[in-house]
Specification:
Layout: E1 8-11, E2 14-17, E3 21-27, H1 35-44, E4 54-58, E5 63-68, E6 81-85, E7 89-96, E8 99-106, E9 117-131, E10 135-141, E11 144-150, E12 174-183, E13 189-200
Antiparallel strand pairs: 1-2, 3-8, 3-9, 4-5, 4-6, 6-7, 7-8, 9-12, 10-11, 12-13
Amino acid sequence: MAGGRGRAVAKGGHVVTTSPRGYCYRWGGEAAPEAPTLIEQLRRCAWLPEQASWWFGWNEATLDLPSRLVEASALRSETDVLHVFSPHVEVRWLRRGERRDCLLFCEEALPASLSGWQQTACYSVVPTQRLLWGVRQRITQRKERQEQRGVVQFPRSLNYGIAGEDQSTRWTDAVVVQALAYYDLEHRLMTVRYATIGHQVPGAKEKTDGD
């Protein structure tokens, strides 16, 4: 099966799949790997490049919106649901009672260094998009008023960690997730994995990045 697998790559801001298949893996060990450990493994095999990887998560009390993954130490240990993603892979940690499950989604064969995973499903993949929150606002942070992307519902700025956010010409652009929708054999939508975050001009078909 591995010989027929392709991969998802970012080209000019787009996510391009070279295979119509996506794969779901579940951690097969007793306890799911801790986020810093697995992130380091994925960094070493270039599946979580520092310049193109993000994370988000939440629990009952806290919501962490998508932002650039710079240091694994920034992730909250008390998070009930944690997503880490890049053009190559998305990993999800899901707390279920005292246990935490770990799922991995990708469109290519796992590197040999990633052992301990069991494939649970194979899906058809369709590129899609998700629009993120945020318009230009005057926000006070550290006693200074700044122009940043934000929404009234969240009493903070929204820093998605993408290039060009400090350029005034970008404030009319939408922030868009390029994602991959996973469908089963009956073409039922089973999940959507995030791949990249970037700018898109409203109404334009082409996605643009901040470079």
